[in-house]
Amino acid sequence: MLVRTKHFGEVDLNEDKIINFDQGILGFEDNKKYAIIYDNESGERPDITWLQNLEEPALAIPVISPFIIKPDYNPTVEDAQLSSLGELTPENLVVLVSVTVPNDIKKISVNLKAPFVINADTKKGCQVIADNADYEVKHYIYEKLQAIKNEKGGK
Q1: Mean of the pLDDT values across residues 106-111?
Q2: What domains lie within the chain, and their CATH numbers?
Q3: CA distances for 136 relative to 44, 96, 129, 130, 149, angstroms
């Protein structure tokens, strides 16, 4: 299916890539269908991808796995928040956090407080609020990204 996007133009997307957020996401409760897309000609998935809404071309949120930034990330959420996703296992669980990229790139941050949780088997997702007091809405990651880049040989 062809999907219009603001940042990537028209994208040909397999229907099995559609993720349904039955409750929408914070601030966009009416937008329920998303896909994870990225612009990479090599076919290798980059660390930062986009959670692209399929109903609103301009709604695309840069996201990253929190485990890249914080390997011990373990948000505490009520089971009821995840019940609509189906049975979650280590194999089908996908957790992403939104990335904010301001004009000053050194202030790039992720939102550890409100992760997106996706069941890759059922293609259902939700955004939850972590109870963890030490998880911030603005967790700065510039230095961590630089370290990862250096580990990969500066690619």
Answers
A1: 96
A2: 2-151 (2.30.290.10)
A3: 30, 15, 11, 10, 23
